[in-house]
Write a structure and sequence with these properties.
Main location: membrane
Pfam family, one: CobS
Keywords: Cell membrane, Cobalamin biosynthesis, Magnesium, Membrane, Transferase, Transmembrane, Transmembrane helix
Catalytic activity: alpha-ribazole 5'-phosphate + adenosylcob(III)inamide-GDP = adenosylcob(III)alamin 5'-phosphate + GMP + H(+); alpha-ribazole + adenosylcob(III)inamide-GDP = adenosylcob(III)alamin + GMP + H(+)
Shape: globular
GO molecular function: adenosylcobinamide-GDP ribazoletransferase activity; cobalamin 5'-phosphate synthase activity
Number of domains: 1
Distance between the termini: 43 Å
């Protein structure tokens, strides 16, 4: 239960217990197993918001409201990771330079451009999903995306000597990843058509395989920023695939 509360506190603005802190690195790492459940909560709130807004506003305005709420509920945590990752990976020529740029609190042109493009992709996909009233599609994105940290931490080492995500990543193991996968897939089975689930599974597996190889090639591991970027990229992919399926 503590790991679930840690996951909720880490990923969102919600905190059910004041002054909750991990008792060990292992406990913090195990919180990743419950990230998909937090994703389901986020997705449910976003879907309910989309449903309510769609009865009052055009689908485009509803999509903007959903994205704004998503940003507020997560404190823009993963968006910041995407910006830092884009700046570092596109601006650094070697491992040390990439890590140094990613640690810089200032956001560069690559980071801003990546965030803008990501929001445009999400907006376009959500506008279609909301206009077709396929609200389960909104829930799928946050669930699948938040399986990623557990999987990546089990495969890749932490790329820095120190960092905020070191405890989670360095203690990552396949048992944590398998629990995250089981919870994520189990939640999706409740509302996602099997054909859609298989398509999303294959597409997500391909994206993650490419990212894992790229992170290993460039940095020899993963960082908290890269995990955040992976979550944002996965969400964008899932919503885009669902959107494309609706328009076929």
């Amino acid at each position: 239960m503590r790991s679930l509360l840690l996951a909720l506190q880490f990923l969102t603005i919600f905190s059910l217990k004041k002054d909750l802190s991990p008792r060990s690195a292992s406990e913090m790492a195990w919180s990743q197993a419950f990230f998909p459940l937090v994703g389901g909560l986020l997705g449910g709130i976003l879907a309910a918001t989309a449903w309510g807004a769609s009865n009052l506003f055009p689908s485009s305005i509803s999509a903007v409201l959903v994205l704004t709420l998503h940003f507020l509920l997560t404190r823009g945590l993963h968006v910041d990771g995407l910006a830092d990752s884009a700046d570092g990976l596109m601006g650094g020529s070697d491992r040390e330079r990439v890590l140094k740029i990613m640690k810089d609190s200032r956001t560069g042109a690559m980071g801003v451009s990546s965030v803008v493009l990501m929001f445009l992709i999400k907006f376009a996909a959500l506008e279609v999903i909301i206009s077709r009233k396929i609200f389960w599609g909104i829930v799928a994105g946050p669930i699948i995306a938040r399986v990623a940290p557990g999987v990546f931490s089990a495969i890749l080492p932490y790329a820095r000597s120190q960092g905020l995500a070191k405890e989670m990543v360095s203690q990552g193991r396949w048992s944590i990843a398998l629990v995250a996968l089981s919870l994520g897939v189990g939640a999706l089975f409740l509302f996602l058509p099997l054909q859609e689930l298989l398509l999303l599974f294959v597409a997500t597996l391909l994206l993650w395989s490419l990212l894992i190889y790229y992170y290993w090639l460039r940095l020899g591991g993963v960082t908290g920023d890269l995990l955040g970027a992976t979550i944002e990229l996965t969400e964008s992919l899932v919503w885009t695939i669902i959107c494309c399926n609706l328009t076929r």
